Amino acid sequence: MPENHSNPSNSLTLARTLHVVRKGDAPPIISLPPHCIPDSEEAAYEVQNHVAALNGPVRGWKVGAAGPDAEPSAAPLHAETLFADGAVIPADFFHHRGVEAEIAYRFDRAVGSDLSPDAILAAVGSVHPAIEVVDTRFIKPGSQSRLVHMADQQNHGALILGPAFSDWRHFDPAQEKFVMRVDHRRVSEQVGGNAAGDLTRLLVWLAGHAVRRGFPIEAGTVVTTGSLSGAFFVPHRTHVSVQFGTLGTVTAFLE
């Protein structure tokens, strides 16, 4: 008889394993036993839900899509990995440091029972420049299957949020130029860059997804919408900045 990879006890076991590695109480994972490997997106999200229960209240999300018509995917984020502009993040916070330029939105109001696009977007208050640090609880980025990395908070390490730009409805991410620097050396410069296309589509999709997951969007929730630059893996003691034409600049120092 084939093993049931979606068994709730297997999902909880994997979540607890990921949690202790995140906390620094166990080394990065080399491989998983077959019964702990998610066999569907639903199973990967179940692991994420267990991780969320272990990490505390959901304060943000990462969401993205491979193309304008592709089904998005998401992972909940928590206060301990959300940082303000100019953050200095301790050396032991990550196993790996893959820095990405991103655009994030902040909901000023909770999303209620009305999940129409107009109602969801009416709750958005601002758009922000952001840096996501890609990390994994596994021995090496990309060393596991897509579903395993999805279960692992979609490789989330930290999110650094820059200043608010409140006129977000008149902001066009596809036309926004940015320059990303690592230790003041330019590593990426382009206009747009997000494969998902319309980022508001991601926000609308996420609001419904979050409700179904039991984590409805609350006031103050931050949502980052996927990489513009791709990931640049950097060593300890690295300064990272992303300067946007409209949104301004966000910086971080990774000890």
UniProtKB/TrEMBL annotation:
InterPro entries: Fumarylacetoacetase-like_C, Fumarylacetoacetase_C_sf, Hydratase-Decarb/MhpD_sf
Fumarylacetoacetase-like C-terminal domain boundaries: 80-251
Keyword presence, Lyase: yes
Transmembrane segments: none
GO molecular function: 2-oxopent-4-enoate hydratase activity
Keyword tags: Lyase
GO cellular component: cytoplasm
Keyword flag Lyase: yes
Protein name: Hydratase
Organism this protein belongs to: Acetobacter aceti NBRC 14818
